[in-house]
User: What shape does this take?
Amino acid sequence: MPRSSAPQDFADRPPWTRPGFIASAILVLIVIVAGLLVAVLAPGGDGNDIADGTPPVNPAPAESGPQQALPTAVPTTAPAGVRWELVGSLAVPVSATAGPRQVTGTTASGFAHTPEGALIAAAQIGMRSSYSLGRDYWEPTIERQFVPSADRDRMLATLRATDTSPSDPGTLSQIAGFSYQSYTPDTAVIGIVLRAPSAGTPRYHVLSTTLLWRDGDWRMQAPPGGAWTSVNRVTNDLTGVVEWGAR
Assistant: This one.
């Protein structure tokens, strides 16, 4: 048989030159390429970032833990570390921990976000807003440290239309105690007890003051109608009242 017509014999040829080996190698190569394309182009894979030029999105950082709860336990005894200073002829409390942190010639602000901070704020703002101290005190205090409202505006209008020159020393009621009526980190309702100057049986006024936490500080809510008489109760019974005041 002529050499050209003899059947091909691959037995003595290198294996990588055989048709079956070549076909298998091509098939393996196709499978590898297809696997790479799936990995690159799959949703969430790096292919998305490369294809559209968008950098990978970093996962949101884990929470560092729950925020520390604000204190809500109200004091049942007179707060420690409080000193009393005169504002005009009225004694007001000052605390290194509860405030006030900023004191001007007529105003005080910067109170701690605690029940004790609300108490100091009620006493400071309440006394400084008294018409008995004169306009230099009550006007900036009510304008800056009362929550804006129609009642606040009515209070200012009434005081501006009234003769509010400072009262004589010894004729003003002084702080004698307090009682918490309710407290949350947003709202504090505190009765400030004032002892009326009297030579006879002691007489007390209990002013129900409401303070709201606004813009990082305690601020007073004006009484209904803008008149303290609407939240004033006269008594000679101090049951349930914590005695507190200048000595």
